[in-house]
Fold this sequence. Notes:
Blueprint (H helix, E strand, L loop, with lengths): L1 E5 L3 H13 L3 E6 L2 H10 L2 E5 L5 E4 L2 E5 L4 H10 L2 E4 L6 H18 L6 E3 L6 H12 L2 H10 L5 E4 L13 E3 L4 E5 L13 E4 L3 H24 L5 H6 L1 H22 L3 H15 L8 H4 L3 H4 L7 H11 L4 H11 L7 H23 L4 H14 L1
Parallel strand pairs: 1-2, 1-6, 2-5, 3-9, 6-7, 10-11
Antiparallel strand pairs: 3-4, 8-10
Helix pairs in contact: 3-4, 4-5, 7-9, 7-10, 7-14, 9-10, 9-13, 9-14, 14-16, 15-16
Organism: Pontibacillus salicampi
InterPro entries: 6-PGluconate_DH-like_C_sf, 6PGD_dom2, Mannitol_1_phos_5_DH, Mannitol_DH, Mannitol_DH_C, Mannitol_DH_N, NAD(P)-bd_dom_sf
Enzyme class: oxidoreductase
Amino acid sequence: MIAVHFGAGNIGRGFIGSLLYDAGYETVFVDVNETLINGINEQGAYTIELAGQKEEKVVTNIAGLNSRTQPEAVKEAIQKADVITTAVGPQILPIIAKTVAEGLEKRVQTNASPINIIACENMIGGSEALRESVLENVEESLRAEVDQTFGFPNAAVDRIVPEQHNENPLTVKVEPYYEWVVETSRIKGDRPDVAGIKYVEELTPYIERKLFTVNTGHAAAAYLGSYYDHKTIKQAMDNPEVKEKVRSTLQETGEVLIEKYNFGREEHQAYINTIIERYLNPDLSDDVTRVARAPKRKLGPNDRLVRPALAYSHLFREEPKHLAEVIAAALLYKNENDPEAVALQTSIQEQGVRKAFQEISEVEDEAFLHLVETCYGKMT
Ligand SMILES: NC(=O)c1ccc[n+]([C@@H]2O[C@H](COP(=O)([O-])OP(=O)(O)OC[C@H]3O[C@@H](n4cnc5c(N)ncnc54)[C@H](O)[C@@H]3O)[C@@H](O)[C@H]2O)c1
Ligand SMILES: O=P(O)(O)OC[C@@H](O)[C@@H](O)[C@H](O)[C@H](O)CO
């Protein structure tokens, strides 16, 4: 069995590659990072270290392709693949869509067997977004057949994999915890037989619970942590003020999730508690800059801050004051090595915080814009 996986980065090697290996796949990693691809081909294996645990795991049965220099080989791999997965970042999905489209065009003309393409990104509707970009790139005469043959089931993936600072660039240190949920309703043909995947009919409650708890809390720790000048998530969470604000933010998203999806209150509180312990893992050092990366994406209308904040004020007619404070901290986030953080600060300087935030978040609710602007004012 062959898996083609786009993105040999942290989650690609540290999570998806690991589960595909356990399931017996030969994994062809596709990336643009020459060091990673050459390393995969030269070493033919890599090591996963589980934070806080002694034993290591070795992943073998791997190959690497550089999509910039070997596009034809990538398309051939897609023709033979039994499953395709991605972990490249939401902003890269439209870029890989062209190669995926060309591979699927070839496949539909030579090997009509269905396969599934699973985007493992932190976003709502990731695989669906990839499907739309892929179909835009498919020749019109083949579009209907490609769409009928290939499934794009949405997924939620959860495992904290920080930036890596290891001697061997392939080695990856991860937290032991993981969750990979895939929706069955959009699958074509057989489900990929991966023991670590939890299949569910409807993904929305799972992806919203994950994004609006793990990632909202993480973003809160990162942006408030940066505000208080902390360098790692653990350092931020060791500051009682930040920890309390993270907790309060997760109470707001928790109310939304419980109201929308009827999660048990105690069960959800236990979920929050586990996540806070994960942020505090003493065996994992996660930089604030990684978790805070791409603030414009994180302030987008369907992402971890704005969507639950608007849902909260809509459902409860109350101000989501903790989420608003985290949004203000995100608007204050500065990092000259992060192009989105630089663009955000330029936009704020040029047009003021309200207009800059409104443009990114697409928020029309005047009361909420006012709330964010007030929080921002208090924090500057
Ligand atoms: N790291 C985590 O804790 C974690 C957990 C869950 C989900 N995710 C999600 O997984 C995705 C990847 O995150 P990551 O932390 O692994 O990032 P990463 O930067 O470590 O990995 C992304 C990889 O994609 C590669 N890439 C970039 N452009 C490409 C292209 N055109 N074609 C092929 N490969 C390309 C990069 O070279 C890099 O190796 C994101 O959507 C992220 O939100 C991350
Ligand atoms: O990957 P991002 O930039 O969407 O978010 C940063 C982190 O919150 C994220 O990578 C988490 O570590 C991960 O989602 C945990 O499952």
